[in-house]
Amino acid sequence: MADGFSGIAVTLVRNPACLLGGVGLLAISLLVPFLGREGRLFRFEGEALSLTPLALAGRHPGFWVLLILAVAGVAFGLIRQERGYRPALWGGGLGCLLVLWLTWAAAVKPYAFGPGAMLALAVCLLVLAHGLSQGGYIRADTFVVACILALAFFVLLFILFPLLAVLRHSVMDAGGLRLGLFLETLRRYTALGRVLRNSVGLAIFVGITSTLIGLAFALAAARSRSRLTVLLRAFSLLPIITPPFVIGMAIILLFGLQGLVTSRLLGLKTRGVFGFPGLALAQTLSFAPVAFLVIASVVESVNPALEEASLTLRAGRWETFWNVTLPLLRPGLANAFLLTIIESLADFGNPIILGGEFEVLSTEIYFAIIGRFDQRLAATLGLILLGFSLAAFLLQRQWLGERSYVTVTGKPPSGTPMPLPRGLEVGLLTFCVAWCAFTLAIYVSVVTGGLVEIWGINNAFTLRHYHQLLRDGMEALQTTLILAGISAPLTAAVGILLAYLVVRHQFPGRGLLEFTSMLSFAVPGTVIGIGYILAFNQSPFLLTGTATIIVISFIFRNMPVGIRSGVAALAQIDQALEEASITLRASFATTIRRVVLPLIRPAIVSALVFSFVRSVTAISAVVFLVSAKWQVSTKVILDQAENGRYGLATAYSTVLIVIMAAAIAFMYLMVGRRPALGGLEGGGLA
Amino acid sequence: MTAGGSPRAARVVLEGVSKRFGKTVAVDEVSLTVQPGELVTLLGPSGCGKTTTLRMVAGLETASCGRIYIGDAEVTHLPPNARDVTMVFQSYALFPHLTVFENVAYGLRVLKRPEAEIQQAVRRVLELTGMPGLEGRSPSALSGGQQQRVAVARALVMQPKVLLFDEPLSNLDAKLRKRMREEIRLLQQRLGITAIYVTHDQAEALAISDRIVVMDRGRVSQIGTPLELYRAPANRFVAEFIGEANFLPAEIESAGDGWAGIRIGPQRLRVQSRPLPAGPVTALVRPEAIRIRTGGEGLRGTIQKVSYLGSSADYTVETELGPILITEYAMEDGVRAPGTGVGLEFLPHGVVPLPGAP
Questions:
Q1: I need a labelling partner for A638 at 20 to 30 A (CA). Which of A181, A488, B273, B344 fits?
Q2: Beta partners for A155?
Q3: Cα(A348)–Cα(A361) distance, rounded to whole angstroms?
Q4: CA A648 to CA A641: how far, in whole Å?
Q5: pLDDT 10s digit of each residue in chain B, 358 long?
């Protein structure tokens, strides 16, 4: 913005930022409808001019202030002043607050915020950015500062604001703020103790099993010289391309009432798998690969010199393994443990299919809204779930979160890592191959499930389910792919831009911005789901029932994927490259286009693909946001599975898995090497 | 690219330039004029503000106060891409996704010069830096010295008003470092470019510079030609930083226009000096300006330590004035043994009186 002004700096114009801001605001005030009808952002049917700020000023005197501000902007644009940034700073800042307040005050049913409000906010934000940049409050040009402000606004609106809405609904009712309300709601909810015990117990159990299995896989994959390690790495990708509840479904196929193992092989007629055993198994299968990714990166970063030092000090391989290698992995193990706890708490798909009588928090929240229409109970339970997840997230960050990506040096340690003790290697490999075989059986049963008439009862081959899928399921599939396709580039752009700002720029609130945006990793999808419902189903921000809200939820749920790949990629790029480009006459934009973007292309591709995959397989947040018009595949599958129609559900899952596998294969082709999978640690698969 | 880049060479003036990062003052009121075609080195230990000063000239940092001029224009608040200054970075900062040719052509392409002109200019400058025939290579396929040359070529091809070097040789091994510094100097003189060069290596600074700016904790300690800095350091910091030095208690007994009569231990000498009042001073004595007398004349002492370095030998001699370091080049008598009693004679060309007792 600053650069563009110098060209048109006529002697008459003393403060181009204020002038343009004022003129822009004036134009919006006279011409653009500030508000819109609920649910129809850009269609006005003749009442557009009655909704401009000028027209609204009769009803809401606050709009006069906006007009005065616009005129003041023009005036300041023409008056000579010592410190030109001051009017921009104050005017822009005041304008932002004013527009927000006016939106709040004026956008009441049946009206919601409209294009004018958005444009006015954008103009004020730009002017404020110019003031902050020129005044030296943030050392960057106007464009960069505007990006920072815009991102901060979106993060506040779409991450923090929904969480605050959850908080508000649990402690406020018609009578105003009552802190006792929270406890009151819980007292009336008699299942609380059992649900908490179930959720926490399951999370800890799954945390332990997943971490142990992840460790076994990580050691085998990183340290064994066997060719089987390729298999183990491929295994790491499976849960990423799988909708979260597919494993739960497969477990029913294998161990349920008509289960292949229970009914066919053992001749049992049991529903025993529903509840804790089935859930623990399904979640371990789902989250062990996440633990594997986390631990593997730590195993690979262990400096071989330490093990070599131990070996030269007369320790054998076993002693070195126990006394050096394993203690060095401790942070990775703790990290994996906490992440899988977060995952397990947040998991929604498996409990809803496999839970049976075994209630957990995430499903209870869903039933509170969908079954009992009790928003307050949902918000209260959501707050408790959020508390657990946040505690685990904060612990993880406190202990090791900082180290998890800051230590990317791009410099591989020298030396060859010590091979595992022979006995251990054989043991680990055997276990891992067996586990892989089990995983494979899961997927085989999913694929076959879609190809038989009725699993366990009539096992005749049929394409019936696929025909039905073509007839009934295509619309949801199309919606899913379109929405995910829209959100993926936006997610990658927002995430990588944020990573760039956080890595390369110093500004007040930088740590907070990063923390809040990474927060959506830890916030369970169900909590974000009710948060969005509570925050965005009323004026002024009315979005529920639209495709927009689904896309927004995808973006802000998956943004950390982009941030992580961006941070990791940028940390490996010497800042001198950008400086060299700038001293060679290139502008900021040219530098980004010609130097930064080509160098972080792999990160961009992987962020694109992973956010796409995660959007398609998402269920926990989106289940609250879908509507008759905007239906997504995962919800359709879930409905089928809940009704026991496993044929259609598994056929549909198979299709999704194939599409996801193709997306991942495409990424490998584009990137040409093993992409950073870091974005998926703590992947919030739920 | 014309070989005589000198018409573009510009004067650089820094007027009371300071840089604060929060509360720490990285650069404190630095004033300096670099003449067109001159190579000036900013020399100092790490953290002395030399790189920050250079980056302010480049525009990569903004001065907290003071003014910077390049040619006739004030550039203090101009962004780097509007300054007509290029820089050779410590890490070379070659774009890894571009070939050697594309790296060198980068700036010209940003300026949208005609392709034919770019081709010609790039080939010419690669020839000039001794790198013909490697245009298609990727930077990662080059040796350190070659990468260095590409970095220099990329900066030169822009025909900048000022060329900046930020410790450009610190990633090379000792032998190559010596050769590259000679080449850089030769190229700079041939093209007549104004250059500012940052280094912490005093030998490099002495070898390459027209003038050296010694910096200490953000301030300019002394500005002078290499000879002036070595022969007449303004203070103890400069004397210690450039070359080796002994600081011995001494006394001024008489003084005149540009000279002083000084007594060090038993010896009286007449040396070049700025005006100093009679009385106790510190005598800076260069190790190579001390002659060892086996006969025992002069300051008496005993050899404590011996380091044989091939072309020379370093001795530490314990005397009544404290331990004294001596470098001996002509070793007609071979290497002396520790414990030998010797006499020391100071040579006037290597003695500088500094105010104050040691």
A1: A488
A2: none
A3: 9
A4: 8
A5: 333 445 788 999 999 999 988 788 899 999 999 999 999 999 999 989 999 999 999 988 888 889 999 998 889 888 888 888 999 999 889 998 899 999 999 999 999 999 999 999 999 999 988 888 888 999 888 988 899 999 999 999 999 999 999 999 988 888 899 999 999 999 999 999 999 999 999 999 999 999 999 999 999 999 999 999 998 999 999 999 998 899 999 999 988 888 999 999 899 999 988 888 888 999 999 999 999 887 767 899 999 999 998 889 999 999 999 999 999 987 777 888 899 889 999 999 999 999 887 7
Nearest CA-CA distance, residue B181 and chain A, Å: 21
Cβ B95–A587 below 8 Å, yes or no?
A: no
A598: Cβ contacts below 8 Å, ≥ 6 apart:
B97
Looking at residue B318, the DSSP 8-state letter turns out to be E
Rounded Cα distance between A621 and A351, Å, is 15
User: β-pairing, B39-43 with B194-199?
Assistant: parallel
Cβ distance of B110 and A590 shorter than 8 Å? yes
How far apart are the CA of B78 and the nearest CA of chain A, in angstroms? 11
B89–A579 C-beta distance less than 8 A: yes
Q: CB distance from A453 to chain B under 8 Å?
A: no
Cα three-residue angle A159-A160-A166, rounded to 5 degrees: 100
Beta strands in A374-520 (DSSP E): 452-454, 458-461
Rounded Cα gap, residues A167 and A378, in angstroms: 11
Q: What does the longest C-alpha to C-alpha distance in chain A come to?
A: 92
Q: Which of A277, A651, A663, A294 is nearest to A446 (CA)?
A: A651
Peptide bond preceding A602 in cis form (omega within 30 of 0): no
Q: How far is B79 from chain A (nearest CA, A)?
A: 9
Residues from chain A that touch B154, judged by Cβ atoms under 8 A, are 580, 584
Listing DSSP states for B97-161 in one string gives: TS-HHHHHHHHHHHTT--HHHHHHHHHHHHHHTT-TT-TTS-GGGS-HHHHHHHHHHHHHTT--S
- Of B85, B93, B111, which has the smallest distance from its Cβ to A576's Cβ? B93
Task: Name the β-bridge partners of B111.
Answer: none
User: Quick one: chain A helix, strand, coil %, rounded to 5?
Assistant: 75, 5, 25
Cα(A104)–Cα(B284) distance, integer angstroms: 77
Q: ∠B146-B152-B158 over CA atoms, to 5°?
A: 140
Amino acid at B333: D
Alpha carbon distance B1, A512 (integer Å): 50
Give chain B positions within 8 Å (CB) of A599: 95-97
Q: Please answer yes or no on whether A585 and B110 come within 8 Å at the CB atom.
A: yes
Alpha helices in B210-355, H assignment, sequence order: 226-231, 236-241
- Nearest chain A Cα to B59, which residue? A583
How far apart CA B190 and CA B5 sit, in angstroms, is 9
Residue A176 β-bridge partners: A173
Query: Which SS3 state, helix, strand or coil, does residue B69 take?
Result: strand
The reply to whether residue A583 touches residue B97, judged by beta carbons under 8 angstroms, is no
Determine the 3-state secondary structure of A93 from DSSP.
Answer: helix
Radius of gyration of chain A (CA): 28
Cβ neighbours, 10 Å, residue A448: 17
Q: Distance between terminal CA atoms of chain A?
A: 42
Calculate how close chain A gets to B328, using CA atoms only, in Å. 42
- Residue A576 contacts B, CB cutoff 8 Å: yes
Residues 6+ positions from A169 with CB-CB distance below 8 Å: A375, A376, A379, A534
Unique residue bearing structure tokens 């925050």: A535
Q: What ipTM does the predicted assembly reach?
A: 0.83
